[in-house]
Amino acid sequence: MRASTRFQRDHRGSIAVIFCLCLVPIIIAVGIALDYSRASSARTAMQAAADSAALASVHHAAAMTAGELKAFARKQFDASFNNIGVALTDFNAQTEGTSVVVTAGGQLGTSLMAVVPGFSMLPIKANSRAAWRSASIDIALVLDITRSMEGSRMDEMKAAVLAMLDALEAASTSGNVRVSLVTFNSQVKIDPSLYRNAPWLRFEGVTQAAWNGCLNERDVPYNYNSAPHNGSVPTKYYAEPCQVGIFPDDPTGSYDNDNWMEPILILSDDFDLLRSRVSSLIPSNNTNITIGAAWGLATLTPDHPINSTISFDTSSQKIMVLLSDGHNTESRFVDPFTTAGKATADKYTSDLCQKIRSNGIQLHTIRFIEGSEALMSACASDPSMYYNVTNVSNIDSAFMSIVRNIMHLRLTH
Predict the structure, then answer these.
(1) Is residue 184 pLDDT above 60, yes or no?
(2) The model's pTM
(3) 133-163 per-residue burial string, b: 16 or more CB within 10 A, e: under 16
(4) Hey, which end of the chain has fewer CB within 10 Å, N or C?
(5) CB-based contacts of 97, cutoff 8 Å, min separation 6
(6) pLDDT digits (tens, 9 = 90+) for 59-105
(7) How many Å apart are CA 375 and CA 352, to the nearest integer?
(8) Sequence-separated contacts (24+) of 12-19 with Cβ below 8 Å
């Protein structure tokens, strides 16, 4: 057989040749995917920074020159946007009627895509519009501080809530934005020095003098129907010893509502105090979403006795933000670890959410990593007001989306 014929019929090594021919486009395809993923992350970060800049600038715009507005917005943008690898090429902030419009653009250097002519850089753009609303706004932040919030969950939630408070303060004027803070686990806490002698309390398992401010659920149905107390024992608020002890399933872990839990903060425009309270939150104990939501509602109810020292604007919009990272695991009345008990505990929460919505309160709910999607989504006033956060690093996006909703921030991309 001639050599040329043998060469034509010899297929040895053909796979290696084919692999080598395919390797280059495979590498390029992987590189394109990675570069587009980086670009998507950069666009998200730039959009969030533009949103923050617009929201922070909108209220101050009327008192600023065009140059001052642009400089102020740019400072806010730079504080939020730290995406390494993006070279900012243009930035502008200007007023349009009662709105502030922020636009930003930049170039992201590519890696493997750079081998393709014309793709050494990818354009990144963001546009945001914030329209100021002058009506008064009262917001109840109802936050789960149970044991499961330990670690990164608590850290990320604190950072997100602090950013929300900063944005609300920047957009407020003359006290027209007020915020209450209700933290809950299996109990809530009020300041005993202010309410020890309140006629609407009943003391169970603790003397009035020894009580340190912790409360459990009211009797059924007052735990979820929010009916005012009328002097009868069942309608009064259940003052009990603060829960302190060792977790049964973790002898090295303790909980202490006596010393660790912050009292409820009624509606306030003192944002420094609000930030201080949020920064000092400590997770512990089990979860009772109903009691947290009930006291969030209380802080938004003008005739509730806890609000005797503050006034209400009848035209103000009332908003509640309810966050939990777990299921109901504590109740005075049922065992939530049984099927029937869980259904009953969730029904209490669901009925209370209905009461909150029927009172004209805009209810936003955040399921943070864990918990009942069905319960938390059904509680929200609208499907767009339910946030299912499955990654701790995304909790800030949920809170800023709520801010945009509250302030009527309209986005264009």
Answers:
(1) yes
(2) 0.73
(3) beebbbbbbbbbbbbbbeeebbebbbbbbbb
(4) N
(5) 131
(6) 677 668 899 999 999 999 998 887 777 889 999 999 887 789 999 99
(7) 11
(8) none
pLDDT digits (tens, 9 = 90+) for 7-20: 455 555 556 555 55
Which structure tokens are listed for 413?
């991309």
Spatial CA neighbour of 358 closest among 368, 350, 370 = 350
Q: How confident is the model at residue 188 (pLDDT cuts 50, 70, 90)?
A: very high
Question: pLDDT tens digits for 117-133?
Answer: 656 778 889 999 887 66
pLDDT at 411 over 60: no
User: CA 323, CA 392: separation in Å to the nearest integer?
Assistant: 13
Looking at residue 77, its amino acid is: F
Distance from C-alpha of 195 to C-alpha of 280, rounded to nearest angstrom: 22
Place of tokens 């919030």: 149
> Do residues 75 and 56 lie in contact, with contact meaning Cβ atoms separated by under 8 Å?
no
Residue 20 has a pLDDT of 56
CA 83/CA 203 separation, integer angstroms: 54
